[in-house]
Amino acid sequence: MRRLLSIAIACLLLAPLHAAEPPLEVDEEVPAAADAAVEADEAASDAGVETDAAASDAAAGEDGAGTDSRVPLRETHRYVAVYNAIKEAYVDTVDDAELMHSAIRGLLLDLDPHSAYLSGEDARAFDESTTGAYAGIGVEVVRLPDGSMRVVAPIDDTPAARAGLRSGDIITAVDGEPLTPASHDGIGPLRGPAGTSVSMTVMREDEAAPLEMTVKREEIRITSVRGRMLEPGYAYVRVSAFQVETATDFQRQLAELSSAGPLRGLALDLRSNPGGLLTSAVQIADELLEQGRIVSTRGRHPISETEFSATPGDLLDGAPVVVIVDAGSASASEVLAGALGDHGRARIIGSRTFGKGSVQTVLPLDNGDSVKLTTARYYTPSGRSIQARGIDPEVVLEPDSRPPALVGDRSEAALPGHLHGDEEELPGAGAGDVLPGDGPIDAALAELKAMQPGAATPR
To answer: How many Cα neighbours within 13 Å face the side chain of 182?
Structure first.
């Protein structure tokens, strides 16, 4: 059993994101192999021989820590005992494949909110979300341990946004059925054929009673970059998500806006941007920075140690940039804001961001399924971790109205089982605010004008 699991773990740790070679095949009869291993363990113990479990425990130390990657046979024995109890005594017959699938899901369930086992259909849906083309309602969510979902952010111009879903909302039931961990099997409860409707029960911080919403699914084709001129010389670009073509679209949008003449400043709006592809955020940062580190990632495995740096060339030729963020700005959008802020290339305004500073790697399996595993943490150019803290703006903006009571913190730090952040417990940590409307855009324009040569010192 140890050999089989060691092979499987090695495949997971060493498989590239797009494996060029098929993974190693292992014996599918895992329970039988485990029984044999346990019998050998028991026989060795009866004979007074030190077992592999004892050797493994000694290598790991009394607290179970250490670098020994072997699976202790004592733990394997416990797993097989539970497996056999379910097979023999559970009230209904449980299929072997179903039981093993549940066991694998359980391995990932308590690690952190973002690690998950993806069936083949789920993995395809995950890939589709990075291209901006899929059938659903258009919302980024994080699954909570009880199966409910916290909304990170609805995506612009999608059914979710038009229905009024907000960052921080908690979806507790879909189509009249309370959400449980099992609700997320397959493509999940919110996706489905375009034209079909889905009803949701939503808990919101400023509502005493749950909200009932019905949303019609559409073919989601997200235009992740939009722009316009605020005033002559002052451009506004909204980036709603980071997808495959986002960096190219950003470059094209800036070229169009500057076609009438050089830009004097740019307001870059990342509010309620739930993130997406790290590479797209890095490319946009590179378009605005002349040099220096953009982001680094650090994990336990050497393959997780990466660093991205800027190359010469600034699309704005040094013109001021103001980045607008809020509590719905997460992951890749925090990376971009952090890079521009740390280098002094942009002034960050708005509210503290979500604080998702972890990296997920999708590892394909030989049966078409995948494992989405948290493998590293993000660090800004100054070496700060985003995890469970987020980006603190230089200029704090307040929402137009503040609810009288909170249903729950809308940040990464509030998610059960989240990875600990280096600055999570420092003074001033906590959830930011969602900042809808045009007020933050007006504030960004005022900051840009104050940053012009000869202008009064900005506040």
So the answer is: 6
